[in-house]
Amino acid sequence: MSMSNSIPEKTPPHGGDVYHLARTLGLELRELLDFSANINPLGFPPGIPEAIREALPEIVHYPDRRCLELTRDLAAYHGLSPGEILVGNGSTELIYLAARALKPKKAVIVAPAFSEYEHALQAAGVPVDFQITAESQNFTLDAPLDPKGADLVFLAQPASPSGALLAPDLLLEAAARLDDAGVFLLLDEAFVDFVEEASLKTSLAHFPHLLILRSFTKFFAIPGMRLGCLLAAPEVIRRLAAVQEPWSVNTLAQAMGRACLKDVDYMARSRELVREEREYLFQGLAALPGLQPFPSTVNYLLVKLNRPEFTAHSLQRALLAQKVVIRDASNFRGLDARFFRVAVRSRGENRRLLEAMGHVLR
Ligand SMILES: Cc1ncc(COP(=O)(O)O)c(C=O)c1O
Q: Closest ligand 1 atom, CA of 15?
């Protein structure tokens, strides 16, 4: 069977499904150039292997189920108290946990958005409504956030999948209004590390109904390890912790998290590299016929394909034949067959993506 015959027909629900893709295509994992998951191109912090070596002897014990040392380090890093932090097995675990623990009667998702909000709410039996954002606002909130009678709202800052930032005053206004109305706001800051000054964590104490979601996956490049955390008022943290499964965060992940938070130099280099490469990739994409990238503040770019003879899916398939993986974004609620998303990677890799796309589109 030739490789092009085995290219999957269906759009997967997430980017980064590289094990499945490589198996389907009969390739080794390392042969694929993955632009479909948004992982820091610098790789993980250099202190991680040593942190794992040091923690390895401890795996004969159950992990510290309270993640005490990592929680303390996170508290110091974010300028909060340990009681305002809950560590989870990736931020996805905490999304499911919030849906279960808060038991909302109804939820609203500001869309397009990460699909696991909707799945988690469905799994918890919560009815879901949507507020769809407009392309003209780069898919950030373009009207006052309307909870539509819901008691839980999901919103991402920066927006996903556009990477645009909602103006701080608009975000603060939305958080204040929901809080006054007793509506929980789950603010997904999974990518905010690239623009840390935009985090709402400094206002957490003002909003007892605010839950801020953070991830180690993207910025620290450890998606395979599963580590994230939630920042919220101690009362909310206790509610969620009460229904969290024990030992969901393993010993090596806890040790890695601590090593990540120590490396301030790596953080600065990551922000600088992503800023430069995002600009390079943006310009390169905009120069290709019919491509319209959206302005982004993080390590991915949403792109609109203004070429009637192509869809994001057909472009994705054509690129797969060159072993390059992009995210067909047509299955995000509020987007359509013209939208795809690419990660910002290193210069050589970004150049390879642009060449592969040029080859297909020209
Ligand atoms: C916007 C957003 N939030 C949260 C997540 C979950 O990340 P993780 O569970 O790896 O922390 C993702 C993953 O793709 C995402 O795109």
A: 14
